[in-house]
Amino acid sequence: MALGVGRARHGPLGIIAVRRLAVLCGSLCVFAATGCTMSSFGSGVGAAAGVASSAATANPAVGYAVAVGTQAAIDASVKYVLRTWKNDQQNLMARVAGELPPGRVKAWEVRRSIPYGNERGSIQVVREIDNPLASCREVLFTVESDETESAYLASICRQEGGWRWASAEPAVLRWGALQ
Questions:
Q1: CB contact at 8 A, 105 and 69
Q2: Pick from 81, 83, 135: nearest CA to 113
Q3: Contact 169, 156 (CB under 8 A)
Q4: CA-CA distance, 127 to 104, in Å (whole number)?
Q5: Considering Cα of 119, then 96, then 162, then 131, what sign does the dihedral take?
Q6: What is the pLDDT along the chain (179 residues), one digit of tens a residue?
Q7: C-beta atoms surrounding 123 within 10 Å
Q8: At residue 136, what are phi and psi to the nearest 5 degrees?
Q9: Where are the chain's structural domains?
């Protein structure tokens, strides 16, 4: 069977598939140009993979399965990276606050190799909490963006490896798969 425009009888490599691929490429360009967020990235990639595999196999069920699987894998990977970044940021802030005497303010900043997730602000030890189990501190920190500055209150505690974030929130490792 000859391949090319109209010669594949509109099968996987015929004109319909080529048109679908062109629409897919155009959609991805628009998706990227509109500034997609990390949370919608998996949906876009999953849809692209589903359309491409559906066009290549001429089977919409295969396309749907590939789209769902790809979206799940991308979403899980993005969540893992964001959790790791947040954990690294919290550990950096805990180290900075662990070195400070109470009342003193110090700046902190996170710079990543890609221009996403870069944050900066200041941190201050508000009070020390000594108890028989652990030496902890309450810290007040700010997160600055281009338009706003937000303030938060958190706790850090001294562990064997140094100061660590102690506030129970999803970025803490003990939450595991519940994040």
A1: no
A2: 81
A3: no
A4: 11
A5: negative
A6: 455 555 555 555 555 555 555 555 555 544 444 445 555 666 667 666 666 666 667 667 777 677 777 777 878 888 888 888 888 888 889 999 999 999 999 999 988 888 777 888 999 999 998 888 889 999 999 988 777 888 889 899 988 888 988 876 544 455 555 54
A7: 22
A8: -125, 165
A9: 100-178
Can you tell me whether residue 20 is helix, strand or coil? Answer: helix
Q: What sections of 100-159 are H helices per DSSP?
A: none
**Is the Cβ–Cβ distance between 78 and 41 less than 8 Å?**
yes
**Cβ atoms within 10 Å, residue 118:** 11
Instruction: Report yes or no on whether pTM surpasses 0.90.
Output: no
CA 29 to chain centre: 21
